[in-house]
Every structure is written in C-alpha cells, then in structure tokens.
Amino acid sequence: MSEQHTHERTDATEQPAVTEQTPVAAVAADDTSLPLFHRTVRPEWIDYNGHMSEAFYVLVFGYATDAMMIETGLHAGYRESTGCSLYTAEAHVRYLREVAAGSHLAVRTRLLGVDAKKARFCHELYVVDAPDDVPEPEAAPVATSELLALHVDQRAGRTAPFPDSVRERLASLVEPAPTWAGRSIAEVPAVR
C-alpha cells in the first residue's frame, strides 16, 4: 500500500522531514484508509508549562499532512514535475490534553471531502505506548486538526484541478466526519 520510507536528519535537534522514504505504519490492509503517522515528543518541544508547546502539535500535524500527500500521489516527484502542491487555506486545532516529553504519538488522518481543487481532511493525535503502536479503539485524541487545503499551481499562482488519479485516490478515502469536525470557535460574550 505504501512506499518504503526513511528519515533524513540534518542535526541532532532538528526533526526529520517527511519524504517518500519516511516510514509509515499501515492501519488497513485494503487501501481504504491512510497509514498512521508516528513521532515521539522531543525534549525541545516542551514549553515553560512542562508539556508540548502548541507550535509542535501543529508541526506534527503538518508532517502528517506531508505523509498523506505522499500516500495520495502528491509526493515530491509530483510537485517537482507539475509545479503543483497543496496549500492550507484554513485550519482549526483543538488542544484537548497535555502531552509530556518522550510521549509516543500516532496521528490518524481522515479525508472528509474532495472536489476538483479542494480537499477537507482532519488529523487526530493520540498518545500510544510504543513508537509504532495503534491507538486503542476507545482512545480519545489528545488534539485534533481540521483543514481545508487548495491544490495550487505554483507557476501560475492560482488554484488548479487535481489530476484525475489524485482526485480519485482522495475521493476513495473520504469517510464520514467525526462529530467534532466542522465546529468553529465559540464566541466569548462581552463583559458588561
């Protein structure tokens, strides 16, 4: 289902990028869902409150998006040959539980919708017991991210239709949205 992947590290503190060689773990044998994406919380990701800083939740979600792009044909070779890529147009992150240094993370990515030039998807971040573990079915995510992404022709500077093969692959992965998806930030009433 997926290509074999390896990490590239530039120094001891830099998180490796996601490439076509980055290892991913399969969660389904039938190609109807994306593999889980895994990372371990690094000490430098911990903030002054003693848990993972909000920026690093977004970093992990960004790497999970990169892994999704690889799995659906929007990999580096595609981007180089076409000049097209996915651009995030909107994102909504929910921080639900603190995450400690050394925690093993698993990200489940779900496609929620796709049309000619847009994809809506979400990530659910879980803490698991070991680096390649799968979250228990009853596990609650520690954070979520819902995104709307546009397929952009970088040379033309505007959105462009997905190639049929990519759109069909994305469409084959669409599943019902979780109950939390589609919400906005609640208004805070003015103090009177």
Structure description:
Residues 1-13 and 20-29 have low confidence and may be disordered. The chain is α+β, with helices and mostly antiparallel strands and 192 residues long. 18% of the residues lie in helices and 27% in strands. It is globular, with a radius of gyration of 17 Å. β5 and β6 (158-159) form a beta hairpin. The termini are far apart. GO terms for molecular function: fatty acyl-CoA hydrolase activity. Residues 1-12 have a biased composition (Basic and acidic residues). InterPro entries: 4-hydroxybenzoyl-CoA_TE, HotDog_dom_sf. Residues 1-24 are annotated as: Disordered.
What descriptors fit this protein?
192 residues, alpha+beta, 3 helices, disordered N terminus
> How many H/I helices?
3
Average pLDDT metric: 88
User: Strand count, sense and closure of the main sheet?
Assistant: 6 strands, antiparallel
N to C succession of SSEs:
EHHEEEEEH
Q: Please state the CA-atom Rg, rounded to the nearest Å.
A: 17 Å
- Approximate shape: globular
Specify the helix fraction band.
10-25%
Structural class: alpha+beta
- By DSSP, the count of extended strands is 6
Share of residues in strands: 25-35%
Low-pLDDT residue spans: 1-13, 20-29
Q: Give the CA-CA distance, first to last residue.
A: 58 Å
Protein name: Thioesterase family protein
GO molecular function: fatty acyl-CoA hydrolase activity
Biased composition (Basic and acidic residues): 1-12
Organism: Streptomyces sp. JL1001
